[in-house]
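This part of the workshop introduces the protein records we will be handling. Backbone structure tokens are a discrete shorthand for how the chain folds in space. Once this layout is familiar, the rest of the handout is easier to follow. The record below serves as our worked example for the rest of this section.
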Amino acid sequence: MKISVITVCYNSAATLRHTIESVLSQDYPDIEYIIIDGGSLDETPDIIRSYGANISKFISESDEGIYHALNKGISMATGDVIGFLHSDDFYTSPAILSVVACAFLSTNADGVYGDLQYVGKEDTNKVFRNWISGSYSEGLFLKGWMPPHPAFFVKRSCYGKFGLFDTNFLSAADYELMLRFIHRYKIKLAYVPQVLVKMRVGGKSNVTLLNRWKANREDLKAWKVNGLKPGMFTLLLKPLSKLRQFLSR
């Protein structure tokens, strides 16, 4: 089973090397590593080129945003499974992709997900949020549940069947895609109860109340474009569920 890991970046020289090293240090033997750069103006392209053939595929060109770039990566991927590791993120150990592959093979799942921690930009041992996903049961999206996207791996065939990221979204295309795959089309999931990815703090959609309000509007749009109706409190429960992540760190 080949796993394609896609990293999208732009002016990411400060953290990208850490991200790349966390992929290249994986003990799983069959990895395709794809990096999509949005035409960075800093040292990002030079850092990527310095790894030579260790990077399976690399392009640097302007794009129409992160979801457009992720779709480029998906179109280039040849792996059986696709995962995303953004340029502020890193795997928590060299065994993560082996654990993910084992979960796919032992359960015959379409998607595998785990947990995620938000950590300090400088001190990555300092945990700000602890996203414990828990096992999925049908209907949890109605209660505000979703898995952390960087810790969500899906068979490439699902993108062929159910579509790519919807680039009409500004910040919630990952939520819309998981809602579509899991809640609407009911792909088979397997949960790995461990932290797979650490993400440096600074997520775009949660920085201010205004951004959170905009994100909620996009969450509602995600349901509408799929012909689905959220529960009465779904859009309220989604941000409220994140409070537990601060309490459990």
